[in-house]
Known about the structure:
The protein is an alpha+beta fold. Helix content is about 20%, strand content about 45%.
Amino acid sequence: MKILYTLLLAVIIFTMNACNKETPTTQTDVMNNMLANKNWYLDYSITGNSTKSYVGQSTYFVTYLKDGSTKDSDGLTGTYTVEVINNESQIHVQLKTAGGNPLEVIYNILSVGETKLVLSKVVTSGTATQLYFTNK
């Protein structure tokens, strides 16, 4: 009976270790694969109670490339990294403004899939803006 109990305990411990949680590295790899080499078009944004729709307009898009570079329809280029900080998935974008000044923008990734991307950002302080993108 003691051998059966020990064997059962060993199986339970092995099973718990085998069901390992997703690591941040795996999580960032999956998100990078979902983001990369697609034009993400802004469909609408929500700040507080205010919603702006861009559906049907190709006003703004951003592209995250597999090599870690990014470009957008405003002509800004830079680099990006996907990171998990305090259990929040984020995109850290390093850009240069038209005047050549460095700029960092941090987006919280609320959702990312094959065709939909939802980001949130807070500019300095205030209400967060949620940005809803699709790729076409």
